[in-house]
Each structure stands twice: as structure tokens, then as C-alpha cells.
């Protein structure tokens, strides 16, 4: 699988500074990342076919994150979705999880909690067998005789 074809984490959030911060965080631990300013932009993108995990804000102008989540579920998408929101009440959490989200994190969120949720989502779906490894895991792979080639 080529660099452009490997699964990536797609971030959909209308806050440019948050998109930039998430891109930097995720890349720093080895994830491929694409960012989108809206649900509509994500839906129009060819990159959605290579999305291994979607990090999604709920409150955006235009199509909401919850509407995108429901749209993806209705279309039969199996991409795991991690929801980030500033409005983390129990009703919103339940609606998100019922619509198919695999994790629900409130802003401000802990970076390690987000990384754990993304890694768990990718492992559970088998979407990304060799990306998103932290330095410790990459070093352990090398010590265990890993040859650095994807299988």
C-alpha cells in the first residue's frame, strides 16, 4: 500500500486551530492525518475512502457532526468515529454513541485519552495494522526483528 493509499485519521472540525493542533499531535506519534473544516468537505473528499478513523466535532456550521455520523451509519460505513465536543451532556453522549461513535470525549480533552481512543478504534476494526505506533512501540517492533515492511 502506497503512502497516499494508507488509512489515515481524518479530523473534521470547524475550528482551524484545533485542526492544526490535532494534526500536529497525531503526526507526532506516527499517524497519517487529513483535516477538514466541515462535514460537507469530508464527504466530498476522495480521502474519505482511506480514512481508518474519523475524529469528529459535533457542533459545526452546515451539517452537524451528529448528522454526519448518522449519514455514515446509514451508508453502511464501518469507519470508527471518535467524537469531540464542548457540549458533553449525557443526552448528547447517548445520541452520539447510538449513532455509531466508538468514543466520546469532551473539550478540552486529554491528548493521551484521544490517542488511546484512536488506537483502540483502529485496532478494533483492523483498519491500521502498522500506523500510529508511538516511538516506544516502534522501537520494540525493531528489537523483535520487525523488518519495517508492511505485510
What does this entry look like structurally?
By secondary structure, the chain is of the alpha/beta class. It is built from six helices and five strands. The protein has a single domain, classed as Rossmann fold (3-Layer(aba) Sandwich). The protein has a five-stranded parallel beta sheet with strand order 2-1-3-4-5, sandwiched between helices. Helix 1 links the parallel strand 1 (8-12) and strand 2. Mean pLDDT is 82; it is low at 128-151.
Give short descriptive properties of this protein:
single chain; 151 residues; alpha/beta; Rossmann fold; five-stranded parallel β-sheet; 17% strand; disordered C terminus
Helices and strands, with pairings:
Blueprint: E1 8-12, H1 16-28, E2 33-36, H2 39-44, E3 51-57, H3 65-74, E4 81-85, H4 90-98, E5 103-106, H5 111-125, H6 135-143
Parallel strand pairs: 1-2, 1-3, 3-4, 4-5
Amino acid at each position: 500500500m502506497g503512502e497516499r493509499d494508507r488509512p489515515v485519521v481524518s479530523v473534521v472540525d470547524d475550528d482551524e486551530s484545533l485542526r492544526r493542533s490535532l494534526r500536529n499531535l497525531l503526526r507526532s506519534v506516527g499517524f497519517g492525518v487529513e483535516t477538514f473544516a466541515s462535514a460537507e468537505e469530508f464527504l466530498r473528499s476522495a480521502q474519505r475512502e482511506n480514512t481508518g478513523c474519523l475524529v469528529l466535532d459535533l457542533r459545526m456550521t452546515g451539517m452537524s457532526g451528529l448528522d454526519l455520523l448518522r449519514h455514515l451509519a446509514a451508508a453502511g460505513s464501518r469507519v470508527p468515529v471518535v467524537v469531540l465536543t464542548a457540549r458533553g451532556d449525557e443526552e448528547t453522549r447517548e445520541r452520539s454513541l447510538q449513532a455509531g461513535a466508538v468514543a466520546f470525549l469532551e473539550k478540552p480533552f486529554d491528548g493521551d485519552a484521544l490517542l488511546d481512543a484512536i488506537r483502540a478504534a483502529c485496532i478494533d476494526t483492523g483498519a491500521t495494522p502498522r500506523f500510529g505506533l508511538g516511538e516506544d512501540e516502534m522501537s520494540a517492533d525493531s528489537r523483535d526483528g520487525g523488518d519495517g515492511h508492511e505485510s
